[in-house]
Design brief:
By secondary structure, the chain is mainly alpha-helical. Helix content is about 80%, strand content about 0%.
């Protein structure tokens, strides 16, 4: 006599791999999210800032991106926390992903037609809020669906897809004849990239019993002393991720202006240069993300890979600091890709292992995502101070990025519950 297995609780740890089709859908959506995030940051917002405030384009771009990043910092954990408690037959995460895709399309369409600084800021703030309604639940889906022993390789695939998204996105401004056309292509790619995951999410619905259990555990946690080491590790994971992402944010923010003004390439050549550098960076990242993720899973350790990759990233910034040619900048992009690819894959696996509790994955992943979003606030503000104090000095910006990368990689040793 056979019996049907009880359905898995939405709060239970995953024990079975979700399948290749699920991973493909996850990767496509992550690529689409990165296109929506970084095509504006890399080129479109820079071009709009130059058109609106041509005499102060660097500072204008810094304020615009900082405002958007602050929006991301606020809304990512909010959307993640709300998705933790969402009851729907579609599951906890998918309703937010669908709503986020639709809201992102509307916000980016609005942003494509702005012509004043206040509307540019408002458009990017709304866009960041909407895109994070997709990003917060999709990253929480990994600890929801993937067993710990497979999170390194899945983290590598996610990192690979995100980098491919950035690389594909960097070609959009070069292939379109206007800022508005660039935004429309971004919208189309975001919508199309979301479809496979939406229709094959494997999202487990939250039942009334699950919700009652989650609330009860929250109340108990307020009354009982939780594992303080887990909490400390969670905080150190936040700090180290922030520092590593800070350097990357500085590079992405000023890449277009570095090529256009720092190397005197001009606007058209700078657009092509951004695409070439991003493509090279993406290729290197794809290689090391997958290799690093697999190796980390096999030996069961994360920290040595994070430390080593952080040092490689710092070396890349040092190369850029002394670069006076596009060829030398290409060398820096190669080294950067080798280091950051491995970092993204293994760091993603590491942070899923320091989440304090299963019932709050969306909230806690959202908090850790602040560590990736906050540098988009901090990097522009620090760059404004450096520009006001020392003028536009790209070597100084690269030195700051190298310093925080070394610090971020070393401080991962403070995390004790992950090897």
């Amino acid at each position: 006599m056979s019996s049907l297995a009880a359905p898995r609780s939405a709060l239970a740890e995953a024990t079975q791999f979700p399948g290749k089709l699920w991973v493909l859908g996850m990767c496509l959506l992550n690529a689409g999210i990165m296109i929506a995030f970084f095509v504006p940051i890399q080129v479109l917002l820079a071009q709009q800032s130059a058109a609106i405030v041509p005499g102060s384009k660097e500072v204008t771009l810094a304020w615009v991106t900082a405002s958007g990043a602050m929006s991301s910092t606020i809304f990512n954990p909010v959307w993640g926390s709300l998705s933790d408690r969402t009851m729907s037959r579609l599951g906890r995460r998918v309703p937010w992903i669908i709503g986020g895709v639709l809201a992102s399309a509307a916000a980016l369409l609005f942003l494509s037609g702005v012509s004043t600084l206040p509307t540019l800021v408002a458009g990017w703030v709304l866009s960041q809020a909407a895109i994070n309604a997709i990003f917060a639940p999709i990253v929480a889906a990994v600890p929801d669906q993937v067993p710990v022993a497979k999170r390194g390789i899945v983290g590598g695939m996610v990192a690979m897809s995100q980098t491919i998204g950035v690389a594909v996105g960097s070609a959009i401004p070069m292939l379109t004849d206007s800022v508005r056309a660039g935004y429309i292509v971004v919208i189309v790619l975001l919508v199309v990239s979301s479809l496979l995951y939406i229709f094959n999410s494997r999202d487990v619905p939250l039942t009334a019993a699950d919700l009652a259990l989650a609330r009860s555990m929250d109340e108990q946690r307020h009354q009982l002393k939780v594992d303080q080491q887990v909490r400390r590790d969670f905080k150190w994971a936040f700090v180290t991720r922030f520092l590593m992402q800070f350097g990357n944010a500085l590079m992405l923010l000023f890449m277009f202006y570095w090529l256009e003004d720092g190397l005197n390439m001009g606007k058209a050549a700078a657009e092509r240069g951004v695409f070439v550098l991003t493509a090279i960076y993406a290729l290197m990242t794809v290689i090391t993300a997958v290799i690093g993720g697999i190796a980390s899973d096999r030996i069961g350790r994360r920290k040595p890979f994070v430390i080593g990759s952080g040092m490689v990233v710092a070396l890349a910034f040092t190369i850029l600091m002394f670069s006076h040619s596009f060829a030398m900048t290409v060398v820096g992009a190669i080294v950067m890709g080798l280091g950051f690819g491995m970092y993204q894959a293994v760091d993603f696996a590491l942070i899923t292992q320091v989440l304090p509790e299963a019932e709050g994955r969306g909230r806690d992943m959202g908090i850790l995502n602040i560590a990736a979003a906050l540098p988009q606030v901090g990097a522009p503000l620090i760059s404004i101070l450096l520009i006001l104090g020392y003028g536009v000095s790209y070597p100084l910006l690269f030195l700051a990025a190298a310093t925080v990368s070394v610090l971020g990689s070393i401080l991962v040793l403070q995390i004790k519950t992950v090897a």
